[in-house]
Amino acid sequence: MSVPCQTVHVDSPTEQRNPRTVDIDLMSTMGILGAINAEDRRVPDAVAAVLPQLARAVDYAVEALRGGGRVHYVGAGTSGRLATLDAAELVPTFNVPGDWFIAHHAGGEKALRQAVENAEDDADAGAAEIAHSVQPGDFVLGLAASGRTPYVLGALVEASRIGAHTGLVSANPRAAKPAGVDVLIAVATGPEAIAGSTRMKAGTAQKLILTAFSSATMIKLGKTYSNLMVSMRATNAKLRGRTIRILQEATGMAMADCSDALTEAGGDLKVALVHLLSGSDVTSSAEALSAAGGHVRKALDSLHLRAG
Fold first, then answer.
1. What class is the 226-307 domain?
2. Which residues are catalytic?
3. Each residue of 66-98: pLDDT tens digit?
4. What top-level class would CATH report for the domain 45-220?
5. In the chain, what is the greatest distance between 2 CA atoms, to the nearest angstrom?
6. 3-state secondary structure of 161
7. Contact 71/101 with Cβ under 8 angstroms?
């Protein structure tokens, strides 16, 4: 028997009952998975609609990192766990300093593995966390499916008071832009397949946004050449093999030539890449990269101009 789905006023769309899944408990296993998958397919379009706001957040992050500041994520529950994951993966992926992206999770490390009662409701704890770690010029990105998590909002207000730029990612377009927020990224993911379970579509949207946000920030900072990861050093045999393959992809040159260039560059993939593509010596290539802020294309342009 089908369960009636009545319209009940709730604060956030994620808390509403989804009319497309009211019979999900009567479905076969394939039916359940199909219903969840159909809801998941709505998320990328919802994220696409907020790309202009996400671009502003990326620009704030790039400005902060270029100025010697840092990027901070603030979240609770699923939001905080996803933020912690994104921050942790940037160091091995892009060879950036470990303190460039810092995740602050309501309830601390214990809450990453199990729920900590009332941690997300403590606005003062969020503010205190930020007061001890954020500097003027940093960028602080909060994540809260409801758009109203006190821990996150308390952190953003304090960050704004300190002089940091701030952003908020939510799945509640109905919520007004909170005080202390420079850019609001409100994704219309709608009601979850299971009412209120924001680890589903809202969480998927946050994962897509975080991955795009941090990757775009790294690209803008010159951590890639084309779509290749070139900001790494060959510190062991495995990484040396990977860097040589990247050099081959980027230059079209033979493995032996790439291996020799990498050795000459002291294991620095970017220096070896600029050396091979420009024909300049390793010292000139390193100097051009330094002057270009680590951007391979800018370094190549400067060397070509110099040669011309």
1. mainly alpha
2. 89, 120
3. 999 999 999 999 999 999 999 999 998 898 999
4. alpha beta
5. 78
6. helix
7. yes
